[in-house]
Protein: DEAD/DEAH-box helicase domain-containing protein
Amino acid sequence: MSERQVQNITTTPPRRRKGGVQTNGRFQGTRPTVMKLETLSAKLKTSLSLDFDTKEWQLTIIQRILQRYDVIFTAGTSYGKSLIFEGVAAMAGKKRVCIVVTPLKALDLDEELRLEEADDGALEMDEEEVWEDDGDEEDGEDDE
Structure:
């Protein structure tokens, strides 16, 4: 076999590059940047009346959530996890919903107090409100 024949056997087929497709002024598959971290920090400080600076990891997570990425993170006690959902709720806009599930009563009560102080239209619901008997059963039996 000649050298040329060996090259044809061992090489992979050439790949064609697809040109970038633009949709609404941005590339398909990319997500828009919400705002720079410095701008986000300033807006959070104003809208949440913060008397401290937010950490870069908090800003990055809030930014990614606002870009509609799924985000999973872990942080220890008192590291500032609550600021994440408060920031997302504040920055997402009035027509957006932010659902927060807290596994501990202490965290739930703490957040309930903060929401009451903020008075920003947030709704808090716990298992006592969800499972209250409203007395609407006609025959007195459970609907199972």
